[in-house]
Specification:
By secondary structure, the chain is mainly alpha-helical. The protein has four helices and three strands; from the N terminus they run αβααββα. The radius of gyration is 26 Å and the shape is rod-shaped.
Amino acid sequence: MEGSNSILLHTISPDEFKALLAEVKMDILEAIGSHQSNQSEGANALDELITREETASYFRVNVSTIRNWTRANILQKYSVGDRVYYKRSEIVAVPVPLNGK
């Protein structure tokens, strides 16, 4: 079978084969765990709270516009004491119409 991607195993004991499979299994589980932790780190970054000023900067509008959007229930605010914050994940999900279109 020339050109195929087959592997021919010979002169390997059943115990060696089991050990090889166990090693491959561990490698796969480590890769999956690493991938999942990278995804959860990205999710945590999106749930970060940002200030009203940072939100205005993201949308390239004035802070008063952010206050108006909050009153109009376009944005959901989160208060910590007397400070107002917004979740980054919610901010990036808000559709913004293009001016004049």
